[in-house]
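Here is one chain, start to finish.
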Amino acid sequence: MVVATTKVADLLSTRDRTRLAGVHPDLVAVVAAARQQLPFIVVEGLRTRERQAQLVKSGASRTMDSRHLTGHAVDVAPTVDGEVRWDWPLFYPMAKVMKDAAQARGIAMVWGGDWPRFRDGPHFELNRDAYPAGTG
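Its structure:
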């Protein structure tokens, strides 16, 4: 596990920094580095149990064991000409820069788009084995 030393304030917008409050610093460092390569926004980081329950109820999530509850996950979305886009093909280059940024820092990260079921393009989380709940 590598400790993040990136100055997030220099790399992310105020909106993104606000949405990353409470997110593990290693994951914040990955997001900040990836943002230097490709435009995207931070949709959501740390969640309350109430928010997670709403997402499960609506079908947007399938678990109350989400890594968002512990600050070990973030959802991001690509932007094109300043507009947020949800087209699946746009998630692949974003996933590449996120994975490359994680690998360059020795940070074990998982992309929801690689899951065999309930693929989740916006979702990135720190690996549970390397970052168990309660670490951060």
